[in-house]
């Protein structure tokens, strides 16, 4: 038994007063003359005995009456906690996109929100609500209802350890408060990185796992954009299913709102399939891919943006060659040919393709510039000179980490082998040629290139044209000079498609989409004024990101913003610079979950509950107070009546 005002119990000490009064009460006896003394003595003995018993009964009833009144004013009650204890409940409600899955009563998030509204009847309790993107403190019933009704799905994912950290931070300043926490989620593995630290729980924690009816989801995972030539682009769409699927899933491609094409994704009892779309490379394309799946909605659409191609910048350094002028026409290319002595090194980073055309000695400063160019995704073609300085060439080979040139060989060799599977050649021939008129060369340089791929080979199996991936860029090595005095390769039908595809096949396409995350860094290739700023906007949002201005680009950093999937325009004042596309992260699309029982091992504070009713019933039982002061008031009245009956009827 507890007391709301225990200090009043000190009044029980005052009960000593009536005891003293009754024990030491002094009475003056009056002498009354009486004739029959013997009869008087008998009456006196009986009266003394009954009076003594009566006094003791009155003393006891009065003591019990006063004791009941004092205890009643101290307000006694039965409860597990004192009335000074405050009760605080913290609920984490996972509103990530995986909670769109349907349970037995509809979408998981919506159905559990309705149950919380229905069952939440706090007595002496405050409730705080934590979601993936917000914290609401000390809510009453009405405020909690409004927050739950207006709660929206969020692209933000919270690791469960982060949730615990938020709960501890929220409650650490509460004094004389019993904290109880509830985590409501589907508990996906994607949101649970470190299980060991999660078991460090020092206050009561309940886990309520929500499970969808069907554990299957079909979604668009990603796309790959490749350039076949300067006229068309292929979009390869990767589609996944969370379990083996035999369905045929329709998928549509839109340019903004205009339907461009439809196809069907055939899984054939697997979990992965791909489809392809081809679009013209002559316009700005704001693409949206859509499929129909009833499990989760957020991953049914996928956005990407491809800007209208600009002319490809091609720079030839060294000897001027008429065949390059004929291939890189003004209609499709910005072609420049410059002698080494007149080269402006600042022009290098603005190029897409650079051809070192028979330079005898490659200077170190050019080597360093070409290293940065290749690192940033540029395409480099190296054509040696008849009198190439091997030390300078090996210096650039070493700097680019592509291999070594061992020797110059003057021996006629025919170019006999074509690698039809190489990207440069793959789409050139409709079928393989058997009666090909082989070109030849009388001088070539033998080189060993690391992890390279041959495009053409000489009769002695030495590579004539090799390709080597170098970080973001590609390097092509042609082992022989191409002037007509050394080789007749310029008269070969291969010369045009190969050099044309140096630019067309390998030109780096700008990133077609970005994934919404806590922080994104986006490079925009543009030149703006010193005091100018870029802003990003769509129909519902408008903001100015952090930005760093470089010579030929502006780096935008987007952080701390809750973005929606779709298209965003990057503008300089009101001038459109670029359209970028954002998509939601697909981690939650996989529908893989953790076993909650593994979290309760060796931790008594963690409990798994089956329903929200159990949680609120437990809270209400803890807060329940059984007041007893009314009973003690009844007892005091009862003892008063007993005393009155004793005084009126006893010993008559």
TrEMBL record:
<feature type="transmembrane region" description="Helical">
    <location>
        <begin position="6"/>
        <end position="24"/>
    </location>
</feature>
<keyword id="KW-1133">Transmembrane helix</keyword>
<feature type="transmembrane region" description="Helical">
    <location>
        <begin position="56"/>
        <end position="78"/>
    </location>
</feature>
<feature type="transmembrane region" description="Helical">
    <location>
        <begin position="627"/>
        <end position="647"/>
    </location>
</feature>
<keyword id="KW-0472">Membrane</keyword>
<feature type="domain" description="Aerotolerance regulator N-terminal">
    <location>
        <begin position="1"/>
        <end position="76"/>
    </location>
</feature>
<dbReference type="Pfam" id="PF07584">
    <property type="entry name" value="BatA"/>
</dbReference>
<dbReference type="InterPro" id="IPR011933">
    <property type="entry name" value="Double_TM_dom"/>
</dbReference>
<dbReference type="InterPro" id="IPR024163">
    <property type="entry name" value="Aerotolerance_reg_N"/>
</dbReference>
<protein>
    <recommendedName>
        <fullName>Aerotolerance regulator N-terminal domain-containing protein</fullName>
    </recommendedName>
</protein>
<keyword id="KW-0812">Transmembrane</keyword>
